[in-house]
Structure formats: C-alpha cells, structure tokens
Amino acid sequence: MKFTFLKIPVLIHPSFWISLVFFVGIYDSLTYEKLILGVIFIFSLLFHEYGHGLTAQYFGKNPKIDLVAFGGYTSYYDSSLTKKQRFLITLNGPLFTGILILLSYYLLKSNIFLNYYMRYFLYVTMRLNIFWGIINLIPIYPLDGGKLLAYILETSFGQKGLKISLFIGNISAILACIYGFGNNYYIIGYLSLIYGFQNLQKYYQVGFGSHKKNNYTLYNDSLKAIENNQTKKAKTILRKLLKAKDNNIKISATETLANVLYKENENKKAYDLLLKSDHQLLKTGKCLLCKLAFAEKNYILIEKYSQEIYQIDPSYEIALLNSKSFALLNNPKYSAGWLKTASLFENVKKKTLKEILQDKMFDNVRNNKTFKQHTKTIFK
Prior knowledge:
Helix 3 runs antiparallel to helix 4. This protein has 4 domains: 136 residues, no CATH class; 70 residues, no CATH class; 87 residues, Serine Threonine Protein Phosphatase 5, Tetratricopeptide repeat, CATH 1.25.40; 77 residues, no CATH class. Helices cover 70% and strands 5% of the residues. The longest helix has 28 residues. By secondary structure, it is mostly helical.
C-alpha cells in the first residue's frame, strides 16, 4: 500500500499487516475494540514517523516512510546534514509520541467525550504510546533511544563515546530480554532480541579489532574534517579508505569522497569514482552517480537505476532526470510516466513543465502519439 501525505511518500509493507493481525488479535475474533486498536496502532506509528519526516523535510530533505513488522522507519538522502540536524530529526519522533500521550490524557481528563468508544480510543492511544515510547527510548541501536545516546556520547567523547553507547545498548538489550521473557511480556522479549542483534552488529561494525577500529576512526576523522572545511585532509583520508577490505567502510568512503569532489566541481572525477564502485552497495551515492551520468550522456545507466534512485530520493529533480533520460533514449511511454510523476509535486507549475517540454532533449518524443496520450492529463 502506497500513499503520499504532506509531500512525504508512505509505503506499508505486507509484513506490517501480518504483524498487525497478530498484535491486535483479529485472527480469532473481530470486535470494535480490536478494530480501534488496529487504527490506533497504524496512526500512532505514522504520527511518530512524521515527527522524523517533517523535521527532515524542514532541513531540505525528501524523506519517505516505511511501515514494516512491528514498527517503521523514516529514510532520507542525508548528505550535507550536520550532526545537530540528525539529532533533531531523531529527537522529534519521540516528541511527537509525547504529544499524542499528553493530548489523549488531556481529552480523557477533561471529559469532553463521553461516548464509550471515543474514551476507549483516547485511553488506548495514551497507553499504547506510553508503551511504545518507553520501548523506543531504550538505548539500543537502531531505536531512537540508542541513536540519541550515540549522538550525545559521540559528540562529548568522540569515537570512544560511540563505543560506550553501543556497549550500553548490548547490556540494555540483555536486561530488556530477561525482563520481557521473565514476566511473560513476550513482545518485549522478542523485540529486544531483534534490536539487540542489530545493536551487536553495529558494535562489531564499529570494530574492536585493530584493523576495523582504525578504519572506522579514520572515516569519522574525514567527516569531522569536512565539517571543518578541511577538504584536502578529508580527501587524503578517504582515498586511503578506498583500499579498505571492509565493504561498509569502502563504500562509505567512496560516496563521501564523490560528494566532496562534486561540491568542488570535479564532476568527472566523482563520476569515474562512483562508476568503478560496486553499484549494488551504493546507497545515496547512486543518485549522484545518475546525475553525473546524465552529464556524461550515459542514459542507459539512468534507465537501469531510475526506480532505485527515486526510492532513495523521491524528488521532482530525480523524476525529471528520469523523464529526460527516457526521452533521449526514445522511450516515450516511460518519459511521459516520469514527467507525470514530476508534475505531482505541488510547487511545480504547468507552465514550467510546458517550457521544459520545449527543450531539445524531448525532441524524440514530443510529437509521439503515446507520449501525448500519457501527458495530456498534466496540462488539463
């Protein structure tokens, strides 16, 4: 299921619906109370994720929300964000949850609503969000509590602080797991196992072996150098990390170095660097690769990754890039489809799109019958 609200696309995965059925318990019977619980479950998760998403949007990003089994996450193209901005994006999810708790508590206490189902809705909203709020603030990565603790300790103590936060996450996961299974709160136990495993993976990714430790420290040093406008130092470190055996470090260094080169108008160097990398491992760098590929007239590459880069960065710019690329490849159907996608953005005017269509890049498809059929709804 897909929809867009407040310019933020939302994708609800099948795994979410399965988990919802078991959480609410509608597999054995269906009551109004269970339906209300299901609605609150969906609404509360979305409200929380919109706390992250709207903040990312405020900082100029194009976030998207995914609801998956027993939870959700907000992703965005995070290049150029400062640590403080990332911290605020993470913080505003729990703050939005807090708003729901306080609002439902106030409405209950004020007795504005006397209907049983309305009071049940408010009561469950308050209790469910208190429950999820506490779980989410347990300092386990990748929960918000773990991320916030990592930001605070890393800012104060550097790499050592990050390691301490992950160590605390491991201990917290063990304690939460013991508490959950020991008191028959199985959902707490299972979630603690899942998130504890992810925290442990991050713990070893940061690396307590000498080789991984040095590489991760060097990568963090390069990010700090970029923040301090020491690009020459950053590039030296990143080029060294391109030879790392750890693929996570290697691809992160590749993407970061490419971004630095791009900002310095070294577009050809950035393009060559990304082109030689493992495209399957690229994340945000795949969008930059396709932007640079357009300048190099490598439209076939953009055709290959058009869907992926729009999922990473669902923006007007990416939709228009895809539309132009398919037009230059003489593919009127897909060019029109991506142009229609670009037209869905609220700040885009029909006049602007009409002017864009006069660009020579659309010469191959402008008068094509299929292209006209698919784009006629844009200019109605």
